[in-house]
Design goal:
alpha/beta; Rossmann fold; four-stranded mixed sheet; 15 helices; 11 strands; 42% helix; elongated
Length: 394
């Protein structure tokens, strides 16, 4: 089996070193910057056909060790996988049922890990979504404040309006909108840990009369058009392809005629929503976002339109998310010792790969991030949006 591995690796030139369980080393190229340590002899068979899911899973489960900068690990892991198994998209997308209990458990798995862990590498407001870089020179805190402002401006928030925040996280956007734009905010989440800290921060800032956060499934939202505006950030990735029409219908039902709906979320490269190729999508599904499914932009626009909403603006923030994830990954790498005190070793290995790997994926166009602005038309089919986007940038 080892002879087969050596034969498969022959001719590959990468600055990569393999160290076997018995201490023997093999350099695939000059000046290795990364060392892969095969702790388990069973890895030899997998290494002859190294999908990103297999490599990542072996590291998470302790069969494979990584030495070197995590971003270089990701780059060389992808190069090795591409050299040995080639390109290609993922398998056909799964059409999973998304029951309320299943979705709640999946959200808890990802978001209830540890508030203190997230605080190590997120910005001071703990905004766990793509930041917005107006010049590219911003630090993470500045870019996240710019993102919150960008969302609020797109929604054309006015004092006294009622804003629904679907998937409110720790409440960063809800508090910003109430504080800076004078709106009343109702936020919902399925994460108990996020809710507890979010409510505490609302109280600490004296916003209890203007921001209400609660544990609620989007399927249980009121359907009486009571909100002037609706925003959903990083939420629809958890909905599932089957439930997208229902999700879009709930957004439509929640907002008044003439009101705006903003959906901000990760979208698939492939029109059928299949996962990223060479096993990267499978790794995320298994270890990071159970039951997560990314729709293509075209699918999301179709379902929003099918619900009766008119899409009026679409903006890709793919490169913004690559930069955001680079910040997150770097901040986590700088505080690994502290992180190790907050989460289990396996969880930390998952998050190191996830953040660095997603930064790489967004930078290389494997996935995208779109802000989709839609309006619920008035009875005569009209709306009252400005003629241009100029008001967003004043």
């Amino acid at each position: 089996m080892l002879a087969q591995l050596l034969a498969a690796l022959r001719g590959i030139q990468l600055p990569l070193r393999l160290r076997l369980w018995d201490g023997h080393e093999l350099d695939l190229g000059p000046d290795p910057s990364v060392t892969l340590v095969l702790h388990d002899p069973s890895m030899v068979a997998q290494f002859a056909h190294p999908s990103l899911s297999a490599l990542g899973g072996a590291y998470v489960e302790g069969k494979l060790g990584l030495e070197g900068p995590i971003r270089e690990v990701i780059r060389l892991g992808d190069a090795l996988s591409q050299a040995l198994i080639g390109e290609g998209g993922g398998a056909a997308p799964k059409r999973r049922a998304h029951a309320k209990a299943t979705d709640a458990a999946a959200i808890s798995y990802h978001y209830d890990l540890s508030n203190d862990f997230y605080a190590l590498w997120l910005d001071r407001e703990m905004v766990y979504s793509c930041a917005y870089f107006e010049t590219g020179a911003e630090d993470l805190d500045q870019a996240q404040q710019a993102k919150l402002r960008h969302l609020c401006r797109k929604l054309r928030l006015q004092p006294g309006e009622r804003l629904l925040d679907v998937g409110c996280g720790w409440g960063g956007l809800a508090r910003f909108a109430a504080r800076e734009f004078g709106v009343q905010v109702h936020g919902i989440t399925l994460s108990k840990e996020q809710l507890a800290l979010g409510r505490q921060r609302v109280k600490d800032e004296g916003l209890e009369g203007r921001v209400e956060l609660e544990l609620r499934d989007y399927r249980d939202l009121p359907r009486d058009g009571r909100y002037d505006k609706v925003v959903s950030v990083g939420m629809f990735e958890h909905v599932g392809h089957i439930n997208l029409p229902t999700y879009c219908q709930r957004l439509f039902d929640a907002v008044r005629p003439g009101g705006l709906v903003m959906n901000h979320g990760i979208t698939s490269k492939y029109t059928d929503g299949r996962p990223v190729g060479r096993g990267a999508g499978e790794f995320i599904d298994r270890y990071v976002f159970p039951h997560g499914e990314l729709p293509h932009l075209a699918r999301m626009v179709a379902d929003l339109s099918g619900a009766g909403l008119e899409v009026v603006d679409v903006e890709s923030l793919r490169l913004h998310y690559a930069r955001t994830l680079e910040f997150w990954s770097e901040r986590l790498e700088n505080r690994l010792a502290e992180a190790a005190q907050l989460v289990e070793a396996q969880s930390l290995r998952i998050w190191r790969l996830y953040l660095a790997g997603c930064a790489y994926a967004f930078a290389h166009g494997w996935i995208n991030l779109h802000q989709i602005l839609a309006v619920k038309p008035l009875a005569d089919g009209s709306h009252q949006l400005p003629w241009t986007r100029a008001d967003l940038y004043r």
